[in-house]
Design a protein that fits this description.
By secondary structure, the chain is α+β, with helices and mostly antiparallel strands. It is built from six helices and 23 strands.
Length: 380
C-alpha cells in the first residue's frame, strides 16, 4: 500500500513538471495560451496581438530579428517578435522604412529624420544614384539620403538639388544668381548665339548657364533687319507679348526688329553725349544738340522706303551710322532718340517732300523740334 502511494506521488510530480515546463516554453515564444486547437492555427501565420503584428513559424514560435516577406510585403520583426512600425531601419546594409502597419513602403519618396529617401520596389532605399520620381530628379547618397541645396556633377552634367531634394529645372535662383536647367535638371550651356528651349519657353544664357539679359541681336540679316530677342533677368525670353512697345512672336523674336535696331543705335549715341544722372529731358536736349552740331547736312537725301511703314527707323539707322542726313534724317533721328528715352506720343511729321520735324506729347501740350523753324531747341 505504501509503495502504491509512493508511485502515485511520483507520477503526479512528473505530470506537474511537464505541464509547467511546456507552458513556460510557449510563453517565451510569444505563443498565447488557448484552447487545444489554437496551436495549429498560430503556425506559419501573421497575427495581430494587442495592436502589434507577430509572425509565427511552423512550430508556432514567433520569429525575431528577421526581415520577412509575407503576401508580397516586407516586415521586420524585432527582438520582442513584434513588427517594427513608423521606423527607418538598416538591415544587412540596406535601409527600409516600415509604416504604421509594419509594411515596408515601396516606390515612395519619404522624408524622415530630416532627410528624403526613395524606397524602391523591394523596399530598399536607393543609394548612390540619380533617381526619377514623379517627373523630378533626385540624387541619393551612400546612406540613401537625397542631396539638398548643393551642386553635383553626375556623368559630366551639372545639377543643383534644391531644399526638397529635387533637381532644379528651367530657371532657378541660387545664391542670388539665376541659372537655367533643362527638364532633366542638367545645367544648360549655350550653342552659339541661339536660344535654348525648355518646355514651352525660350532662354538665352552664357557659358556658365546664367542669363544674358536685355535686348540681344542673335543674327543680323541686313542693316535694317535682325533676329532680336528680349531676355528677362531670370533668363526667359519674351514671347507672345509686348515689351517697350515691341511685339514678340511665339518663337520669341521681335516682330519689328528695325525699330529695335534704331533704338539700340540711339541708346549708344545717347550714352556718348549725356551723363547717367541727367534727366530724360536733359538727355534728349543734349542728344538733339549733338545731332545738329555734328551731322553733315546732305541736302535732299531720302532713305529707302521713304514714307512707307518704319521709314523713320530706317532713316535713323542710316543717319546714326553715317552722322549725316537732311532734315528728314535729322527729324527721324531725334524722334528715335525720344522713343529710346521713353517719351510718349512721339511723331515725325513731314510736309510733302520739303521738310520734316518732331512733335512730342498730346494736343495742347506739344513739344516740338524743328531744326529749321521757330521752335529749334527752345522747348526742350
Amino acid at each position: 500500500m505504501k509503495s502504491t502511494g509512493k508511485l502515485f506521488f511520483i507520477v503526479l510530480l512528473i505530470l506537474t513538471c511537464l505541464y509547467t515546463g511546456g507552458t513556460q516554453a510557449k510563453a517565451a515564444a510569444n505563443y498565447p495560451p488557448a484552447d487545444p486547437g489554437a496551436a495549429e492555427s498560430f503556425t506559419d501565420s501573421l497575427r495581430k496581438i494587442n495592436g502589434k503584428w507577430f509572425y509565427f513559424d511552423q512550430n508556432g514560435i514567433a520569429i525575431t530579428k528577421t526581415l520577412k516577406q509575407i503576401n508580397g510585403n516586407y516586415y521586420y520583426f524585432g527582438a520582442d517578435g513584434a513588427a517594427v512600425t513608423k521606423t527607418l531601419k538598416k538591415i544587412d546594409g540596406n535601409y527600409y522604412y516600415f509604416g504604421a502597419d509594419g509594411i515596408a513602403i515601396t516606390k515612395t519618396l519619404k522624408k524622415t529624420d530630416g532627410h528624403y529617401y526613395y524606397f524602391d520596389a523591394d523596399g530598399t532605399a536607393v543609394t548612390g544614384t540619380l533617381q526619377k520620381v514623379d517627373e523630378k530628379y533626385y540624387y541619393f547618397d551612400s546612406k540613401g539620403q537625397a542631396v539638398t541645396e548643393k551642386w553635383k556633377t553626375i556623368n559630366g552634367k551639372k545639377y543643383y538639388f534644391r531644399k526638397n531634394g529635387s533637381a532644379a529645372t528651367e530657371s532657378c535662383r541660387i545664391n542670388g544668381k539665376y541659372y537655367v536647367f533643362n527638364l532633366k535638371g542638367q545645367l544648360l550651356t549655350p550653342t552659339g548665339r541661339k536660344m535654348k528651349k525648355v518646355g514651352s519657353e525660350y532662354y538665352y544664357i552664357n557659358e556658365k548657364g546664367q542669363p544674358v539679359t536685355g535686348w540681344r541681336v542673335l543674327r543680323e540679316k541686313s542693316a535694317y533687319s535682325a533676329d532680336i530677342i528680349y531676355v528677362y533677368k531670370n533668363g526667359k525670353c519674351a514671347r507672345n507679348e509686348t515689351v517697350d512697345k515691341i511685339k514678340f512672336n511665339k518663337n520669341a523674336y521681335a516682330i519689328n526688329s528695325q525699330r529695335v535696331l534704331a533704338r539700340m543705335a540711339a541708346e549708344k549715341f545717347i550714352r556718348k553725349c549725356t551723363n547717367s544722372s541727367d534727366s530724360i529731358s536733359v538727355k534728349l536736349k543734349k542728344s538733339a544738340q549733338r545731332v545738329v552740331a555734328t551731322f553733315s547736312y546732305t541736302g535732299s537725301q531720302r532713305c529707302s522706303g521713304f514714307k512707307k511703314d518704319d521709314w523713320v527707323y530706317r532713316a535713323a539707322i542710316e543717319a546714326l551710322a553715317t552722322d549725316s542726313g537732311d532734315c528728314f534724317y535729322i527729324a527721324a533721328t531725334i524722334g528715335v532718340l525720344a522713343d529710346a528715352l521713353g517719351f510718349e506720343n512721339v511723331s515725325v511729321i513731314h510736309l510733302a517732300k520739303s521738310h520734316a520735324y518732331v512733335r512730342i506729347g498730346k494736343k495742347g501740350n506739344y513739344i516740338y523740334y524743328d531744326n529749321m523753324g521757330p521752335h529749334q531747341f527752345t522747348t526742350f
